[in-house]
Design goal:
The protein is mostly helical. The chain has helices at residues 2-21, 27-38, 42-54, 60-66, 71-93, 101-129, 134-144, 148-160, 166-187, 197-224, 231-246, 250-264, 286-291, 293-300, 302-313, 320-326, 339-342, 346-356, 359-367, 369-375, 382-399, 402-406, 414-422, 424-434, 438-467, 472-479, 482-500, 522-561. Helix 5 runs antiparallel to helix 9 (166-187) and helix 8 (148-160) crosses helix 9. The radius of gyration is 24 Å and the shape is globular.
Length: 565
């Protein structure tokens, strides 16, 4: 029981780490000031945003570090990388030191790398401590990475609402403080035995409660995250947010106490009346089922699977679209894909295209949010927009767990959910192109945050399902190479359009060139909208090519559970 209790302390610790280490999401809050102090163009500012995203390319280094150092050492290495990267940028912003542009670029790269190291530590902790409910643990912790900007906005308002460089100081020290607070649970990791069926069901109930608390936290930050610049009120609101982050520590204890009470006092009490089915032993997420797939695969035989597929499609007309959908598609979920096989599959490139034209565009939009608000005359609302994007990104990440909760009532392939999640992005960009008023800006920011948040959180599970759970570490790192590439290309094109309109709307109040008016980003929004339609199309084709594998897996799962009834 003590070991089971400590694993929940570790989960809450990973939630804290994720909540306070998404430091790249508040870049737009101070980017305009950074641009002014360095005296750089929009293109050069874009390169600094790219440098932060480029840290993901070196995410593999955290896995290498874990081969030689314990988890807590890697955690503090990440914290000190962030302290050094953001701390020196803060000194530059305060005119305490002066650094050339190339060194500021390298500091942004180092800070971005620290985020990947924090993420790796959290992923490993979830995988080690929640093998039966791994997707639920990952989706919950990844979701909290989306509220970082809202939390930092509250903290910034509580300390000094008039200074934007406070974000860099917070980015430097808060992750280090969080690492110190999380140290004891991580060091005292329990050795866990396999859970019995009732244990898996109990853990799933706890996850459900924690998700409700997470939704409450997101609503709180959305309503109050940037609503006050008054120092005392902001401190009270920050205290409320911290309470909501600490309160989940009580939930496992309450559930365990309730279970003990019912077992000892009301032994006949049963929860079987619920029609809401969560993850069960026979319904572990795909990586447990897929590890044993070879035995069932050999029992059925390769030819049998092909015969089933051909019988199902025998009555369908063969055409160009059918050929593209069926050619070399995945025969089953979870087949391990080495790198050479991965890059030769059309399914992977459709997935890559959907990600780079969906989630990555959303990230680039958040990086440019400061300049977008400034060009539309909404500079005073920049922190509100950052909080709005952060909060809806958080909700999107939480929604990525919905397929795992409602599969008993309604089942869709996870690639279908990905397609649905991409729909808001083109709507948002075309709305921005059509109207530059404050309402359109707020609605579009919320839609982009919701869409990109879902994609970021769902990507790990989709990669595991389509290309193998044992290869997910390597394959997912290959997938997210699209982030720095997309950040560079999309941001560079946006900066070119921005700078091309500067001459007609030059703002000479600041030391840097500032573009004002809808024309600064009009063409960018149109291009981003068209590219997101391309991503939506790629995702839909991926769904058509993979739905048979998902439905085959679900049918097998249901048939294996039938004798239990």
């Amino acid at each position: 029981m003590a070991g089971q209790s400590r694993k929940w302390m570790i989960l809450v610790a990973t939630v804290w780490i994720q909540a306070f280490t998404g430091t790249n999401f508040d870049f737009s809050a101070y980017s305009s000031d950074l641009k002014s102090i360095l005296g750089i163009s929009q293109v050069q500012l874009n390169y600094l945003a790219v440098a932060s995203d480029l840290g993901k390319v070196f995410g593999w280094s955290s896995g290498l570090a874990l081969m030689y150092f314990p988890l807590w050492v890697v955690l503090f290495m990440a914290a000190f990388m962030g302290l050094f990267g953001y701390g020196l940028q803060w000194l530059v912003m305060r005119d305490i030191i002066s650094l050339p542009y190339i060194l500021v670029f390298l500091l942004c790269l180092l800070a971005g790398c620290s985020i990947c190291w924090f993420n790796t530590v959290c992923f490993v902790l979830c995988i080690q401590n929640f093998p039966a409910n791994r997707p639920l643990a990952l989706s919950l912790t990844i979701a909290f990475n989306g509220v970082s900007a809202a939390l930092y906005t509250l903290a910034g308002n509580a300390i000094d609402s008039s200074s934007n460089d406070i974000y860099l100081l917070l980015n430097a020290f808060i992750p280090l403080i969080t690492s110190v607070v999380s140290l004891i649970p991580i060091i005292r990791q329990p050795s866990l035995d396999p859970l019995p069926p009732d244990g898996v069901r109990r853990d799933s109930l706890i996850f459900l409660i924690l998700n409700f608390l997470a939704i409450l936290t997101g609503i709180y930050l959305l309503l109050f995250g940037s609503s006050s610049s008054d120092g005392m009120r902001a401190r009270l609101l920050l205290g409320g947010a911290i309470f909501l982050l600490i309160f989940p520590l009580c939930i496992p204890g309450i559930v365990y106490a309730r279970e003990w009470f019912h077992r000892t006092i009301h032994s006949s009490f049963s929860l079987h009346g619920s029609g809401f089915i969560l993850v069960d032993v026979d319904d572990l997420e795909l990586h447990k089922e897929l590890i044993t797939r070879e035995s069932s695969y050999h029992e059925n035989g390769d030819e049998t699977l092909y015969e089933i597929k051909r019988r199902k499609s025998s009555g369908e007309k063969e055409g160009c679209c059918d050929s593209m959908v069926k050619k070399d598609r995945l025969a089953m979920l979870g087949e391990e894909h080495p790198v050479s096989l991965l890059v030769s599959r059309l399914d992977f490139w459709l997935y890559y295209s959907a990600y780079v034209c969906g989630g990555t565009i959303g990230l680039v939009y958040s990086n440019n949010l400061g300049q977008i608000a400034q060009s539309l005359g909404q500079s005073a609302n920049t922190t509100t927009l950052v909080t709005l994007y952060s909060s809806f990104s958080f909700f999107g990440r939480l929604l990525s767990a919905a397929p795992d909760y409602i599969r008993a009532k309604m089942y869709f392939a996870r690639t279908a959910w990905l397609t649905i999640a991409l729909v808001p992005t083109p709507i948002a960009f075309f709305l921005l192109a059509a109207s530059g008023n404050a309402v359109a800006l707020h609605i579009s920011t919320a839609l982009v945050g919701l869409s990109s948040g879902f994609i970021f959180a769902a990507a790990v599970s989709i990669t595991s399902e389509l290309f193998g759970p044992n290869s997910v570490g390597v394959n997912h790192n290959i997938l997210i190479t699209n982030i720095p590439i997309g950040s560079l290309v999309y941001g560079f094109l946006a900066a070119i359009v921005y700078d091309s309109h500067v001459s007609s709307s030059l703002n000479i109040i600041t030391d840097s060139v500032v573009c004002m008016g809808r024309q600064c980003y009009f063409l960018t929004f149109v291009w981003w909208g068209c590219l997101s339609v391309l991503g939506l199309t790629s995702s839909f084709l991926l769904f058509l090519r993979t739905r048979h594998a998902y439905y085959q897996f679900e049918a097998k799962r249901i048939s294996s559970m039938t004798p239990l009834y």
